[in-house]
Request: fold
Amino acid sequence: MLRFLTAGESHGPALTVILEGMPAGLPIDFDGLAADMRRRQAGYGRGRRMAIESDAAEFLGGVRHGLTTGGPIAMQIRNRDWDNWQATMYIETERPPDAAGARRAPVVRPRPGHADLAGALKYDHTDIRDVLERASARETAARVAAGAIARQLLQALGIRLVSHVRAIGDVHLPDSRVVSVGEALAAEQSPVRCADASVAARMVAAIDAAREAGDTLGGEVEVVVTGLPVGLGSHVQWDRKLDGRLAQAVMSIPAIKAVAIGDGVEGAARPGSLVHDEIVLTHTAEGRRLSRPTNRSGGLEGGITTGEDLRVRAFMKPIATLMQPLRSVDLTTLEEAPAAIERSDVCAVPAAGVIAEAMVALVLADAVLERFGGDSLSQVQRHVDLARATVAARTSRPE
Reply:
């Protein structure tokens, strides 16, 4: 019901995103959208490109007088660096005489760990730039723009998303450390978006050491979602299970190599008595209600939301461009040569959390519209309120 497509290259004129399926009547928080775009560009360990770009999403359709119309939303994010790349990335058959910037030589030495070699062989390109420009994580700026609109729909329904960094390289929070929503929000002030100041300082030192060595670092981020209604997703078919949909969306982020829900991998090593979340009765002045003393499942059971906080963790490998390049082969001569070097980051883990928020928001917004329906925000809100009241009536009793 909700889908998006992006287009554009890293050093082309612009990135474009079309978001289809948003209900009418959603007020757009333009400042909130701009803030999410800035957050993606921040974080200790980012490269020089972030100093060039100042990402801003320009609406081209689907919004009028500050409200969504129900039609497809089109946005464009201009690449300021296009001014320096016109002589390399021109669109016309022949280079325009006024194309600015130096013309770069074709890229012929693929980087291990990147889409370079597989993409060049798949699409029969001789210049790997035709692959790397689209495979670049620059494309995620368009995802964050779309995700910001999805986030605003969720916020209107009382659903909130945050993220934080759990690990960079071998520096990490303890496995048992559960970061609250408030702590994750406070972590926005950290240069690495980590909720523990002492761990954050060691993460910064690890990034500095990797930079000195011409190396890169990966890590782990966690997205936490509160206020979700019970019943998003389904157990009835494999492709409707929400955990599978979330995993696919988050795994599609460049350099993400694993996704976990709740305890994830750690739960595989524990007995069932220490993995599953018991269902108990909590007694209050208002009466009895069902509750969970733990949330090891991360808010999902059987592919369906339980009403507990959703916790999605993503594991990012180190970026493939190394300033001390790994061994590779020149595809024009088939002789060994060091891999190509493209301008890149030392560590983009803090930004990965923001992108993961966007992808989780898009999946959840789609699941909300699938579950509750409605062509306008007011219709969706009424359906959500009715479902919440129905669940509350089934799971609580007066004393």
Notes: The two ends are 42 Å apart (CA to CA). Residues 123 and 188 are 40 Å apart (CA to CA). The mean pLDDT is 95.
